[in-house]
């Protein structure tokens, strides 16, 4: 398969890059000096694109690659891929579900604990020598707090299972009620926010869910409520969230994703009730290898005319 | 009961102080109107109760100097700062605050494990110092599915086990004796436990037997990919051994809430990235500290009314 051209959209994983380079003719899009010239030169040899949460395959790129057969995303999220266009042109799309579910759910719980118990702040407190002068302040108990989940898919369910072990009552909002679960369903996000202590965004990013957490939802969550976002930055109206945090209209936030990564609103840097992570939801050695293997497995399957492992389209 | 004299050993919680002041004749040992020797000379005979905590309890000297002491009510579940033998000898009742703080301490145990494995504090610092613009951080370690070894399967140890199970962790433990009615794997030897788990969590009481129960051998068995979490007592771990293991990379990481000589923390650890250090905050939430204080008050009131104690230590 060495003659098959594969375009990697951005740096994502050295192991994946290496393996793609071994098996295919790999083009690293971020190293190309002039993207349009590159595309004109190579458009007939590129049959696959490997994208991720930062850069995928938008309409423009798809149009520029007439021989494109498959987009294999190194992510479970598909918001950077023009799915409609792929469907139209018969281009296959794969992602990396399941292998990263646990890591993302673990991080959601980790963020909840870090925000409520002020773990990072108290770690800083010790490291600055302040403990010698006095005890750290009291924080907020996590066990028993009401957890509201937006999106009860694989990740949402994994978060619910973990939170239940902390005796957290679980409620959720989804496009449709999941009657097979015992969790309480709210038909609107505002109602969900009004009835929980910790609101977690765990849905996929689509046109419908953009800014699903807006001013109304933030107000409903309230001054003692905490927002956790392990979904996508655009799920949350970021400027509204920032002012709510700065003005203390909301109790705190744990954020792994932002509207314009890697940019993060600097007003948040000094707040002690906010934990900010650089989109590390699936960022463990174990999971990134599993994701890479799934991307490679899907590409091999496709070019060997075998069934795709994790097809979306 | 305002004529009953109670001695509070150190500052613990303002709410508790106020409650004690309103109900008893409260003396604050850190804020006496006279010198300590004078205070004891003048008041030792009147003091019937001591309220202590994990910092200052009721040791042999104190008990000896309070001839009419009837009860020691600890604002903690740990009893390592109380001379229990002496209390038993002299018929002095002892109460602590079990159960009300179990969830908070277990939550912290899991929080520390997640913070260490997923580098949460490192990442938060990375973002807040504006460094994300320059590139991503390296990868962390997965928590779900890892094997968790618990030293001490009491209330807190069991609560930690229950939470870990939801993360599909395999649970094993070491205890003085095997516990019936659990599915967890028992190791009669703590070194074997450490050799067979990836995250070792100290959740036992501090007694003469458990002092330095986590020693060089245990740390070596846990190894360069292992993580130590201590939400028990500082003295359960040989601290200098822990420090050198971390500095030399012989231990993969640690999440520590308790230290041998609080509030002193070995400064060599401050620059170590794979370590999370918190200032003995296991039960320090608004909700739990109030519940603990209420339990202390209720125990004292029960005692002075001749009613059964709520949480006596037998």
Automatic annotation (TrEMBL), chain A:
Residues 12-312 form the D-isomer specific 2-hydroxyacid dehydrogenase catalytic domain. The keyword NAD applies. Keywords: NAD, Oxidoreductase. The keyword NAD applies. Residues 109-281 form the D-isomer specific 2-hydroxyacid dehydrogenase NAD-binding domain. It comes from the Eukaryota. Pfam families: 2-Hacid_dh (PF00389), 2-Hacid_dh_C (PF02826). Belongs to the D-isomer specific 2-hydroxyacid dehydrogenase family. This is Hydroxyphenylpyruvate reductase. The lineage of its organism: Eukaryota, Viridiplantae, Streptophyta, Embryophyta, Tracheophyta.
TrEMBL record, chain B:
Keywords: Oxidoreductase. It comes from the Eukaryota. Residues 110-282 form the D-isomer specific 2-hydroxyacid dehydrogenase NAD-binding domain. Residues 26-313 form the D-isomer specific 2-hydroxyacid dehydrogenase catalytic domain. The keyword Cell wall biogenesis/degradation does not apply. Pfam families: 2-Hacid_dh, 2-Hacid_dh_C. PANTHER family: 2-HYDROXYACID DEHYDROGENASE-RELATED, GLYOXYLATE_HYDROXYPYRUVATE REDUCTASE A HPR2-LIKE. Belongs to the D-isomer specific 2-hydroxyacid dehydrogenase family. This is Hydroxyphenylpyruvate reductase. It comes from Hibiscus sabdariffa. The lineage of its organism: Eukaryota, Viridiplantae, Streptophyta, Embryophyta, Tracheophyta.
């Amino acid at each position: 398969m060495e003659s098959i051209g594969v375009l990697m959209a951005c740096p994502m994983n050295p192991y994946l890059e290496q393996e793609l380079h071994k098996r295919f003719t790999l083009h690293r899009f971020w190293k190309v000096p002039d993207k349009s010239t590159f595309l004109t030169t190579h458009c007939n040899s590129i049959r696959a694109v490997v994208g991720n949460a930062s850069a995928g395959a938008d309409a423009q790129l798809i149009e520029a690659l007439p021989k494109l057969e498959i987009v294999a995303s190194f992510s479970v999220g598909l918001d950077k891929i023009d799915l409609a266009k792929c469907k139209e042109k018969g281009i296959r799309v794969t992602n990396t579900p399941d292998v990263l579910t646990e890591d993302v759910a673990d991080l959601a719980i980790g963020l909840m604990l870090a925000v409520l118990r002020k773990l990072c702040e108290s770690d800083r407190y010790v490291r600055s020598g302040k403990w010698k002068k006095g005890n750290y302040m009291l924080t907020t108990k996590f066990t028993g707090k009401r957890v509201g989940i937006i999106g009860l898919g694989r990740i949402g369910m994994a978060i619910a299972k973990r939170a239940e072990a902390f005796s957290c009552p679980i409620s959720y909002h989804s496009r449709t009620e999941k009657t097979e679960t015992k969790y309480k369903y709210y038909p609107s996000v505002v109602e969900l926010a009004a009835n929980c202590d910790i609101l977690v965004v765990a849905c996929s990013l689509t046109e419908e869910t953009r800014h699903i957490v807006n001013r109304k939802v933030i107000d409903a969550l309230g001054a003692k409520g905490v927002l956790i976002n392990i979904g996508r930055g655009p799920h949350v109206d970021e400027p509204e969230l920032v002012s709510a945090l700065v003005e203390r209209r909301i109790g705190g936030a744990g954020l792994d994703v932002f509207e314009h990564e890697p940019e993060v609103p600097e007003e948040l840097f000094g707040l002690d009730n906010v934990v900010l992570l650089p989109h590390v939801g699936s960022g463990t050695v174990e999971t990134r290898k599993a994701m890479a293997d799934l991307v490679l497995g899907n590409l091999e399957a496709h070019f060997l005319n075998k069934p795709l492992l994790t097809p979306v389209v | 009961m305002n004529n009953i004299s109670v001695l509070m050993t150190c500052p613990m919680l303002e709410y508790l102080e106020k409650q004690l002041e309103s109900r008893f004749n409260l003396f604050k040992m850190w804020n006496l109107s006279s010198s300590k020797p004078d205070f004891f000379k003048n008041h030792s005979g009147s003091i019937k109760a001591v309220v202590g905590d994990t910092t200052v309890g009721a040791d042999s000297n104190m008990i000896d100097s309070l001839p009419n002491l009837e009860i020691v009510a600890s604002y903690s579940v740990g009893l390592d700062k109380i001379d229990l033998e002496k209390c038993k000898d002299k018929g002095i009742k002892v109460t602590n605050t079990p159960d009300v703080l179990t969830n908070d301490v277990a939550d912290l145990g899991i929080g520390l494990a997640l913070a260490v494995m997923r580098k949460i504090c490192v990442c938060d610092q990375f973002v807040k110092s504006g460094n994300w613009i320059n590139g991503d951080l390296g990868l962390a370690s997965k928590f779900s599915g890892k094997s968790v070894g618990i030293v001490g399967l009491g209330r807190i140890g069991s609560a930690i086990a229950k939470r870990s199970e939801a993360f599909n962790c395999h649970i094993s433990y070491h205890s003085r004796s095997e516990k019936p009615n659990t599915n967890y794997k028992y190791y009669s030897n703590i070194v074997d436990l450490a050799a067979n788990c990836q995250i070792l969590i100290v959740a036992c009481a501090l007694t003469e037997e458990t002092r330095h129960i986590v020693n060089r051998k245990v740390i070596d068995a846990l190894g360069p990919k292992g993580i130590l979490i201590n939400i028990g007592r500082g003295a359960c771990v040989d601290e200098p051994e822990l420090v050198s293991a971390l500095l030399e990379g012989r231990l993969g990481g640690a999440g520590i809430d308790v230290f041998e000589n609080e509030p002193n923390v070995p400064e060599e650890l401050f620059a170590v990235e794979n370590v999370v250090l918190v200032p003995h905050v296991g039960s320090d939430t608004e909700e739990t500290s109030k519940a603990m204080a209420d339990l202390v008050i209720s125990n004292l009131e029960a005692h002075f009314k001749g009613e059964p104690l709520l949480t006596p230590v037998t």
